Amino acid sequence: MVSNFSSKNLYRNLFIGLSVFLGILMMYLSTDYGPLEDTRIHQDHGVRILNYFKGIDKKAALTPVDDQGNYYDVNKNLDSEEHGMNGFGGFFDLVSNFLHQFYPSSEIYAFKNFVNSIFGFLLFLFCGLIGKELRNWKLGVLTLIFVTLTPVMFGYSMNNPKDIPAAAFYIIVIFHNIKLLKELPAISLKRSFYLILNISLLINIRVIGLITIGYVVLGVFLWWLLENKKHNFTKIHKKDSLFLGSKVLAICVASYIAVSIFWPYAQTNPFKVPIEILIKMGEFRGFENLQLFEGVWKSSFDMPWYYAIKNLFIIMMPLHAFLGFFLIPILYFRTTKEQMLYVSMILFASVFPMLLVVVGKPNSHDGSRQFMFSVMPIVVLSAFSWYKLFGLIPKKNLVKVVFGLMILLMLEPLRFMIQYHPMQALYFSPIVGGVSGAYGNYEIDYYGVAVKPSLDWLDKNVGDSKNPPRVRLYYGSQMKIKSYLDRNPNLQYALSKRESSKWDYSIIMLAEGKYKRDLDVNWSPKNTVHEIKVDGISLCYIVKNDYKGDDYFLELQQNVANSPSANGFIDLGLVYFNKTEYVRSIEAFKMAINIDPSNSLAYNNICSAFNRLKMYEKAQEACEKAISLRPDFDLAKNNLLVSKNRISRSREENLTVKEYLNLSYNYYRLGFFKECIDTCEKLLEIDPDNVIAYNNICSSYNNLEDYENAIKACEKALEINPNYEVARNNLDSAKKKIGD
């Protein structure tokens, strides 16, 4: 008896010690992580929610569904973002912004990471506590270690403001549901409060958390069946059963209503909104993008049915947890019915969300991280399975061998977590060959995890407070670098277009391969000064700008004037291209073609320039010519794909007046007069009195020697603005030609 008591206290104290150590460690390490791709959009949403509760404005209560019943696309513009993000309750972002008011000197994203690490710690802690509830403190310790050694979850625990808080509340709800089942038929106010609190906050963060209300009902119902089956359903106490059911119903209703407490939009209709958003989330396209899965690029709406299952339970899962999955059946061997119920409820919490994904076919993107909450319950059962296996093995020596195997398997993710800190989230299971095996088959760093280590390298190696180098990031959210550079005196933030030369160092994410598929193949080594690697795979390039300046430009102009050559004009065209003077670059590339009609590179470069000018049909023609000259020209194939995609999308997009004018002007400069007229006519559909459009039509008809239509267009321009001298001059020119 004394021995058992001592053992119990030993593992209880060990659990407490490990938990305290883990919590402190995670909060300390959180400073090593940077914001991720969508952190900014959630942060701004949190500010709007806080402003709502302060009474500053009501933006957080705007409907995320437009007048046509469609979900707002948060990437379209600021107004759509402000509407669309209200489909999320945003509890984490509200809390982090509220707390930040008391620590204003802390950089907001660093502070959010600190708060994020606390939620990550709670996720691991309650997984361990579930292990304790399933058996004892010894299993609690093993479970705590098991879940901590899931590198993806550990890494995202520091800076993922959506998926980790959701996973934390999900596992806390499961814990309290298990406690509830153990305490039945009594339902205490304390347990009711904990369930209502955590279910409502989970739904606030991810509306799919509504399923946990069903877990409570299902668990109590199964318990009721087991209890009454003992007496073959002959001693059912209807009054007690109804009383129990009414308590459960009260918990469910209160959980549902409480969702609106911290969700401004839900306050507009607490009964309707959660269900409405759950249904509409299937249409949510805010994070729709191309996904690399099994070596094929597809839209996030076109993923195979097993996309989420493979990502969450195979690709990101370390072997010690993965092998434990196959041991789960032994949890139903030599056990009580009550224990089987607890195990089944936890297993159901992992399996049921995946069934919903398979049936519902939602927008599944970025490694299915929005369903990451379903991972930890089965990892808990994996730990329990190993634990029970040790008890079933009759020979102690064999137990030692199996235990040694488990430890050996656990060392693999531990090594990765230490060696590649703070990039634990980029872990890939040995089943798919690790990161090197995932390369070219799966997206590795869609979220920008490797950006922070890139910035750290730049600060250490090229940072200069007297003359800080300009650093840019072209792909994705600028906040991934801006939050770091704004508080670093040794580096300077540069916001620039891809072709701009106004930067010193550029961070190139491998994720840019979504739009530049040959990035890793055609990257110029001479410009790359450092690579952020995991398992030998480059995830981020740091490139030094080798722009040669105006002297080089003048030299090229002089060379092609004195000794024209195709290569000379291509070099000149590239300089114009980098200066964003795309029309002149096209003219230079055309000169190269005049000298060398079979120059596929010149045609490809013309395609790229046309794409920049939004002349996608012309771009398509140029790239098709390049490919006809060189069928294996992968870069031209990629540019052609961009052209075709943009042609398809442009049919659904409306340009602004300024964009139409720029497009018509560029068509005119390049001699595409019919296209200039067509573009201006589209402009006149949205701005019927635009005198510039009528003048451009007049000028184009003059060049086409269609003077009668030129006169009509210029007379219309002067009818709108009699003082428009440019149109008057074009009109005089057209009349003179007719007179001649």
Description:
The structure is a single chain. This protein folds into three domains: 385 residues, no CATH class; 97 residues, no CATH class; 86 residues, Serine Threonine Protein Phosphatase 5, Tetratricopeptide repeat, CATH 1.25.40.10. Helix 1 runs parallel beside helix 6, helix 10 runs antiparallel to helix 11 and helix 28 packs parallel to helix 30. It has 32 helices and seven strands. The protein is mostly helical and 740 residues long. The strands form two sheets. Strands 4-3-5-7-6 form a five-stranded mixed beta sheet, with helices on one face. It has a two-stranded antiparallel sheet with strand order 1-2.
Low-confidence runs of at least 5 consecutive residues: 517-525
Output mean pLDDT: 89
Strand order of the largest sheet: 4-3-5-7-6
Number of strands: 7
Going by helix content, strand content and strand pairing, the class is mainly alpha
Terminal CA distance reads: 118 Å
Beta-strand fraction estimate = under 5%
Largest sheet: 5 strands, mixed
Radius of gyration: 31 Å
The oligomeric state of the chains shown is single chain
Helix content: 55-70%
Specify the overall morphology.
elongated
**Whole-number total of structural domains:** 3
Total helices: the number is 32
Protein name: TPR repeat-containing protein
Transmembrane segments: 12-30, 108-127, 139-158, 193-226, 246-266, 312-333, 339-359, 371-389, 401-418
InterPro entries: TPR-like_helical_dom_sf, TPR_rpt, Ycf3/AcsC/BcsC/TPR_MFPF
TPR repeats: 566-599, 600-633, 657-690, 691-724
